């Protein structure tokens, strides 16, 4: 097999890999992307399509806001549909409303809403709503089409190529600054390589993931039939307020956590983040639960799935019919939201190790390219 050449080789055509490829292409570099599958089928299409910038803190907040701007920019160039001001937190208990009100005092992108406002946002049939908040920094995209559209658009650009059904087999030592990557379809010589394979980094560089204590987080998610109502934002609920740092760090979150542990132990036992978004055809993406192990079982627990369906149905005040179920998987570790490591000279691995790849992936890739390339 012959050896081809490029300035940058990206392994993995999920959002993190495409973020690196986009930044390199925009810098005028030649880019080759390889992916072992024939189209995107991983975490980047199995999610809610929610760019959750409002609820991040610290470094993740900076990355999320940078990524938000990059989503808007690439959407204008590629035709990807994107909604702005696209987060809604629904409060159905006074302690949930207290969390939102406390955060709104220090973060202008959290806009308090009345109970009537919230019911109007989610179809008008919701019972028990006491208020809520708009999350103005958030974006919404359709997860099943956004990354495939971005990949196809990149492939049409000059000096960018995507090789599907092409697996990464490692690198060969050379006497030059370039890197020679072995793939299932021949060698590629590149000036810089980014390995962005998500949770599969544990098969590519197990010593790196072992040292960083990277495991796999499995999610239970579903698609419902169109419930007959229109919902523009990504909708978060009480359990979401314990999961995202900006909410969870408020003083009011303590009382919320105590109540949910005492009164809703089944939600806490499944480590749920009850939320949902609506696809263009009207179906609702609903979820999710979280289970972390080094190797996760592929089997979905119907009790957990039914719990999620019933909770979303309760929020909306409508019956829901599930039409699809699937398991999402992403990399997870206790010591940081993302992992970067130099696998060899000129070869950097990058995995987001919490569930915010769509939120931070574009900016993370852009920063790596800016740091690494002249």
Automatic annotation (TrEMBL):
Keywords attached to this entry: Flavoprotein, Oxidoreductase
Cofactor requirements of the protein: FAD
Any matching Pfam family: DAO
Molecular-function annotations in GO: oxidoreductase activity
Keyword rRNA-binding included in the entry's annotation: no
InterPro entries tied to this protein: FAD-dep_OxRdtase (IPR006076), FAD-dependent_OxRdtase_HpnW (IPR017741), FAD/NAD-bd_sf (IPR036188)
Superkingdom of this protein's organism: Bacteria
Keyword Oxidoreductase: yes
Assigned GO CC terms: cytoplasm
Record-annotated FAD dependent oxidoreductase domain positions: 7-364
Family: Belongs to the DadA oxidoreductase family.
PANTHER family: D-AMINO ACID DEHYDROGENASE (PTHR13847:SF286), SARCOSINE DEHYDROGENASE-RELATED (PTHR13847)
Name of protein: FAD dependent oxidoreductase TIGR03364
Organism: Gordonia humi
